[in-house]
Task: inverse folding
């Protein structure tokens, strides 16, 4: 009986073939832009001008990648994307780590150290998740000016930490409510305090949700353009702003291969993170979906 069920379950039916064909078509549809970007980035300008957009490179070359990284003009400066790429790294890593840690502590408090008005605080944080970027530009600019952090990488780090705390707190709070209250109460009876419980019980259980916050925050911060162009000075602009400047800087001939290489360089960190840690993102989201 079991063998028959296994055999029937693995049988290829017309419906399953249609499903697979549809999935393949959808995958090709979504991968087509990436294919065009990759192939164009290794083509020569002559082939780009004379050939078809979907043509395979006849003489692949990485010269466009080298120029996009270190020589392409982004306005009046012709240093490529490299300085701005490292600006994004210096901005994203501390902002991701600090906002995730603060969100973890906030979620821990809201889930297991409830105080009068904690529901109102949680509601306010949820509202904060839906505040548009444009609404916080003016007050954030005044805050950075008062703190003398305007037009600096440190200022961008502060901006992303403040804006991301609402999201990370929401993620951690919803995850920590699945931790049994009895476990926390038993630790209190044994004399453990706030930080002892967090360090010995809560934090070791938090790897899945930390991965969710790391991936979410890194993606949001790395891909941000508005905060970078408003709060980043000429020496602190992230790679997204530099990419926009590179594409819109004309030196007589539009170098599509350089533009495509630059776009892939700018998107590469987030692509790699999803390829390497995407399964942890889904696992972390589902880990806190069911209480108990």
Result:
């Amino acid at each position: 009986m079991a063998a028959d069920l296994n055999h029937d379950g693995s049988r290829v039916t017309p419906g399953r073939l249609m499903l697979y064909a549809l999935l393949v078509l959808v995958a090709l549809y979504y991968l087509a832009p990436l294919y065009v970007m990759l192939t164009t980035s290794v083509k020569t300008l002559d082939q780009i001008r004379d050939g078809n957009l979907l043509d395979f490179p006849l003489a692949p070359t990485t010269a466009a990648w080298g120029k996009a990284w270190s020589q392409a003009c982004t306005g009046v400066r012709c240093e490529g994307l490299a300085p701005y790429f490292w600006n994004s790294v210096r901005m994203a890593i501390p902002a991701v780590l600090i906002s995730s840690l603060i969100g973890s502590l906030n979620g821990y408090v809201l889930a297991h150290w409830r105080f009068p008005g904690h529901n109102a605080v949680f509601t306010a944080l949820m509202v904060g998740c839906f505040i548009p970027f444009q609404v916080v530009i003016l007050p954030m600019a005044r805050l950075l000016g008062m703190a003398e952090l305007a037009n600096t990488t440190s200022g961008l780090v502060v901006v992303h930490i403040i804006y991301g705390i609402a999201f990370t707190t929401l993620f951690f709070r919803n995850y920590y409510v699945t931790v049994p209250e009895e476990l926390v109460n038993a630790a209190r009876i044994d004399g453990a305090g706030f930080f002892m419980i967090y360090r010995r019980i809560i934090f070791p259980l938090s790897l899945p949700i930390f991965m969710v916050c790391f991936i979410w925050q890194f993606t949001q911060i790395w891909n941000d353009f508005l905060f970078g162009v408003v709060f980043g000075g000429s020496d602190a602009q992230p790679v997204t702003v530099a990419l926009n400047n590179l594409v819109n800087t004309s030196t007589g001939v539009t170098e599509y291969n350089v533009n495509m290489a630059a776009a892939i360089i700018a998107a590469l960190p987030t692509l790699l993170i999803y390829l390497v840690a995407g399964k942890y993102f889904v696992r972390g989201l589902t880990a806190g979906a069911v209480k108990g």
Notes: The mean pLDDT is 87.
